[in-house]
Amino acid sequence: MTNWLDILAGINEEKGSTALRSQPLYVLIHNRIKEAIDDGRLPADTKLPTNRELANLLKVDRSTAARAYAELANEGCIESFVGRGTFVASSRPGRNDPFESTEPDNSISWPDKFSRASQTVYEMLRLEQANIGWQQEVISFAGGIPTDESYPHKDFERILEKLIAAGRSAEMYQYSPNEGLPALRKEVRKHLAKQGIDASDDKLLILGGSQQGLDVVANILLDPGDLVVVEDPTYLWATCNFKSRGARCTAVPLDDQGIRIDILEAILQRQRPKFIYVIPNFQNPTGITMSYERRRQLLLLANQYQVPILEDNFVGDLRYDGESLPSLRAMPGSENLVIHLGTFSKALCPALRLGWLVAPPETMPRLVIAKRSSNLTTNSISQVILAEFLKEGLYEQHLATIRNTYRARRDAMLRALHKELFILADQQGDRTRITWSRPHGGMFIWLKLPDGLSSRELLPYAQREGVAYAPGDVCFLSQEQSECLRLCFIQLDEANIAKGVKRLGKAIRSYLEDVSNKSLSNRSHLMGTGSHSFI
Ligand code: PMP
Fold first, then answer.
1. What residues make up the domain containing 44?
2. Residue 63 within a domain
3. Could you read off the pLDDT of 398-429 as tens digits, one per residue?
4. Number of structural domains, the chain?
5. From CA 328, how far away is CA 361, in angstroms rounded?
6. What are 101-110's pLDDT values in tens digits?
7. How far does residue 357's CA lie from ligand 1's centre (Å)?
8. Which atom of ligand 1 is nearest to the CA of 145?
9. Ligand 1 touching residue 343 (CB < 6 A)
10. Which among 67, 69, 89, 65 is positioned nearest to 77, based on CA atoms?
11. Could you tell me if residue 107 is inside a domain?
12. Do 407 and 461 fall within a single domain?
């Protein structure tokens, strides 16, 4: 019989505090089980403890146990079967089998070559892959992109024909200037001026999407070991980028007004982060919008401690109701303090790969060089088309249309959530209710399950019902938060939203039922008291 105490020995001691540990907890657990599989202590087809059993055994959160298993599954080390449980895989790539091949192995050992930073990021990336492998007819609230019918197909086609007929194809096939095509710069400047942002020549850089903005800013500001303050939770691919430069991220929780200024101030008093990364409008993943007062306090604090702010305004143009608030970059005192990022990906079309950056003039020459070293210049074809689209005034028209569409979709999702989950929300009592956000714009609703449950454990139930969502735990820097999940409401029509939420409701109900039918010992973990060893 497998002696789990031996296999997992020492993890409880190594757990210590997050700050002292060199690796995340789930990596420790993953490594310990993988070692035992590799050296034969856990032979093929050995049954593994369930998530809950493993969590109880190690006195960790179930999402941490689930993450360790997700890693092992992605590597092909373990396999799960509905109704039977999880087992060590019977065959797996790379398992040492002396009879398999007599060829000498001269190939490079890539794992020895990868940088430490890339390893950290890769671990985060594999967790995100929990979203794949769903059946075809799944209704997906995961991801976060507009759908085909939201794009201005006809206008793009007409503009392209017009440009070719006007003999401008040469312009489209050349490299464009590093800073971006002048015609596009002019139109973006006009667009930003309407929002009170001065994007004059020495402050504006056209980007291949705002993700490139995160990259060039990290390039010019971050050295290995530097600290970046981020919101908790935040956009996964921002923290991935910062960490790939060897930076550390420290997370400040959000409340319904945005980043918690009191906690931020306590950090700034003790440490000197290189910058503070915030998503003030309809945040990814929570949908929260930073209040005016909070924006003002953030600027004051950043100024007082002389820490720049990186403002990511990825869906600022998608407000459906409520009072519109100025960007940090449009507020007094921000000129030399705030680097502002924007994008056409969400409000127009992600495949254009076009965004922009507005920054203090002193930083611009370095940002331009960072961009140049990253991709030389931005795609000329899409810049020429977009410049024309903006010049013809079509962006404003497009925004008016999609705001109506997305508002209706948001409302449809809120209505469906109310219909399908209200009873559950009510039944669970105050402390452990299911709750969800009601964003004034953007594309995400953030749903929180009752305390102690895990959106990752809910995944197989959702998979069975044919509905997908993004588990929220990957967006937190503090790994222990497992209850949240992110629902994107812009990518499906209202009928499919209603259908998908109905499926989600069913999945949540089955999950809750299973949880409450479990033995007392297992439920004790749910309540956050005591622990139970299954051995
Ligand atoms: N910031 C946030 C918050 C995002 O969610 C995304 C994409 N999902 C980006 C930046 C980057 O988008 P893009 O490069 O397409 O502009």
1. 4-97
2. yes
3. 999 999 999 999 999 999 999 999 766 655 45
4. 3
5. 17
6. 555 666 788 8
7. 13
8. 8
9. yes
10. 89
11. no
12. yes
